[in-house]
Amino acid sequence: MRQILSAKQIRDAEQHVFDTQPDVDLMGRAAAAVARIADAVTPEGTVLVAVGPGYNGGDGLFAAARLAPHRPVLLWLAMGKAHEAGLEAAVRAGAQEVDAVGAIGSLVDCSLVIDAVTGLGSRPGLPAQVATFAAACEDEHVTVLSVDLPSGLDADAAEPHESFRAAHTVTFAAPKPCHVLQPAASRCGRLHVVDIGLDVEAGNLRQAEESDVARWWPVPHEGSDKYSRGVVTVDTGSETYPGAALLSCAGALHAGAGMVRYTGRAPSGLIMSRFPSVVIGDGRSEATVLGSGWGDTDNAASRVEWAKLHRLPAVVDADALYSLPNGRLEGWLLTPHAGELGRILGCTRAHVEAQPLECAREAARHTGASVLLKGATQYIAEPSGRVTIAVAGPAWTARAGSGDVLAGICGALLASGLPAWKAGVVGASIQAITATRHPGPYTPDDLSARMPQVIAELTSEL
Ligand SMILES: NC(=O)C1=CN([C@@H]2O[C@H](COP(=O)(O)OP(=O)(O)OC[C@H]3O[C@@H](n4cnc5c(N)ncnc54)[C@H](O)[C@@H]3O)[C@@H](O)[C@H]2O)[C@@H](O)CC1
Ligand SMILES: [K+]
């Protein structure tokens, strides 16, 4: 699990080092890492360093001082001012200063631009002259290595603002929200996280990794039977949308449910013709999946209430999200996309997309359920306020039906005994990992059929 830290958490950790180990040269360590990665990304050719007025610029200048002895280095002081000791070191090592016109003019001959304009102290957006330079880097297709974060981003936020578009970003101690939240993350390129000796504490935002999914996967053991592995009751689909029933059953079966019972309104013959192991009708079960493909139904509230009365942990998807029963929904997992979450919270989809963490947290706090907010980045918020980001996957899964499969996967995991937040994290992650290992326009049911092989590979890698 990777901790994602806010700018404040990093600054506090830095301050702790300054207070307790005043001799430690954090900037020297950061600059050494920047120079090493610059050489690894482009081993030769001219490096142009765009330098801002603060410590981020200082990192760039001390990196320039390390690079200048073995390759041409140009410096552009993008805002006039620069870290004095850093500038002195870079110039002493042979770096040449250029002005704004010279910086843009030299781009055709540069193999790398190091963006050291602003970092943690960045106010969103760029001054006009820097924005022009950042756009010129994109037009000339110059490789950009950003120090800490692409200048112009807000370290703690998902918005892309006006910012550099980096091919590589080197950051220190831990990723910040802008490195993992879309669309800002797409401006960071490949992320290199470098340990510079900061002691950072776990916060309430983290990102799951493949190894977590492997570790948490409910692998059956010799004493397992269909009941101990978990029976999931699937109440999805309708006469209008029978496909949703097939998709959520596919998700539950391919995620390894001990048994799938189907109680929805889609024709049972259709379910049986595709999945003969599904049992039609009600009975003992450990979890339920509700809502995918219900469409407009006049009994949504009573079908959701049924799960509450039976104390059955539920995955609540799609139309069922608008019929949540009163009271705390402990152990439940809600799986809205941004539009659905907006409707639940009484705000717009755009607001949810701009503030995904806050909105997912608010819904979890308000309902007592865990909330899996689906989208390009998938967030699982717990009522405590802790948010885990699922393993990221390719955009191939962004198509109709993926959510129905995901609800089924999460239902199987919930039935196996995973707590709701973990079922959400593992479910969203396994779908992403499968899509990464099988890239291409697979239909959601085809992709779900490839999941068992990926689960076997993952869990055997332990
Ligand atoms: N404190 C330390 O010793 C360390 C700091 N580190 C580096 O220091 C950075 C943080 O340094 P700072 O706190 O000096 O902050 P920054 O260097 O990110 O930027 C601060 C300066 O940029 C200006 N600025 C910010 N956004 C602007 C905008 N949109 N338009 C115009 N001017 C803008 C501010 O007014 C301020 O003068 C980190 O990102 C990291 O790169 C690393 O060297 C590790 C150690
Ligand atoms: K930067």
Question: What can you see in these coordinates?
Answer:
With 462 residues, this protein is an alpha/beta fold. It folds into two domains: 201 residues, YjeF N-terminal domain (Rossmann fold, 3-Layer(aba) Sandwich), CATH 3.40.50; 251 residues, 3-Layer(aba) Sandwich (UDP-N-acetylmuramoyl-L-alanine:D-glutamate ligase). Helices cover 41% and strands 15% of the residues. The chain is built from 18 helices and 18 strands. The strands form two sheets. Strands 1-9-18-17-16-15-14-13-10-11-12 form an eleven-stranded mixed beta sheet, with helices on both faces. Strands 4-3-2-5-6-7-8 form a seven-stranded parallel beta sheet. Strand 17 and strand 18 form a beta hairpin. Ligand NAX binds next to helix 2 and helix 3.
Any chance you could write out the topology, listing elements then pairs?
Blueprint: E1 2-3, H1 7-20, H2 26-41, E2 46-51, H3 55-67, E3 73-77, H4 84-92, E4 96-98, H5 100-105, E5 110-116, H6 128-139, E6 144-147, E7 168-172, H7 177-180, E8 190-194, E9 205-207, H8 210-216, H9 226-229, E10 231-235, H10 242-254, E11 259-262, H11 268-274, E12 279-280, E13 287-290, H12 300-309, E14 314-316, E15 333-334, H13 338-345, H14 349-354, H15 356-367, E16 370-373, E17 379-381, E18 387-389, H16 402-415, H17 420-437, H18 444-460
Parallel strand pairs: 2-3, 2-5, 3-4, 5-6, 6-7, 7-8, 9-18, 10-11, 10-13, 11-12, 13-14, 14-15, 15-16
Antiparallel strand pairs: 1-9, 16-17, 17-18
Bound molecules: ligand NAX and potassium ion (K).
From the structure above, extract its key features:
462 residues, alpha/beta, Rossmann fold, UDP-N-acetylmuramoyl-L-alanine:D-glutamate ligase, 2 domains, eleven-stranded mixed β-sheet, seven-stranded parallel β-sheet, 18 strands, binds ligand NAX, binds potassium ion, isomerase, CARKD, lyase, nucleotide-binding, potassium
